[in-house]
Amino acid sequence: MPTLATDIEVLARFGRALADPIRCRILLALCEAPAHPADLADALEVSRTRLSNHLTCLRDCGLVVAVPVGRRIRYELADERLGHALDDLRAAVVAVATDTTCPDAETKGCC
């Protein structure tokens, strides 16, 4: 059990980032490969403005980074271990219960 306030804050920040389905979709897409915002918006079928807001949240949470590539910006996971953590978390949740839903699934929020 975490005892340091920073451990708890980090987990809470990660949880808030995952609390929105669009942010989850962005993270899963970036697990596959880095991407430019326009490409992400098209792939996820969300407006560029909405995507931008979610990318800002994920960047502020420290989960993604913006990498300049020429005159464009490409987004990628801040650390490759995040991809492994997302895979492990997804597998663990599925292993525990596949027929339940979270009562707070509609809760919105940002980091």
UniProtKB/TrEMBL annotation:
Signal peptide, first to last residue: none
CDD domains per record: HTH_ARSR
InterPro entries, sorted: ArsR-like_HTH, HTH_ArsR_DNA-bd_dom, HTH_Metal-responsive_Reg, WH-like_DNA-bd_sf, WH_DNA-bd_sf
Residues in HTH arsR-type domain copies: 4-100
Gene3D superfamilies in alphabetical order: Winged helix-like DNA-binding domain superfamily/Winged helix DNA-binding domain
Entry superkingdom: Bacteria
GO biological process: response to cadmium ion; response to lead ion
MF-aspect GO terms: cadmium ion sensor activity; DNA binding; DNA-binding transcription factor activity; lead ion binding
Cited Pfam families: HTH_5
Alphabetized SUPFAM superfamilies for the sequence: Winged helix' DNA-binding domain (SSF46785)
UniProt cross-references to PANTHER family, sorted A to Z: HTH-TYPE TRANSCRIPTIONAL REGULATOR CMTR (PTHR39168:SF2), TRANSCRIPTIONAL REGULATOR-RELATED (PTHR39168)
Protein's recorded name: ArsR family transcriptional regulator
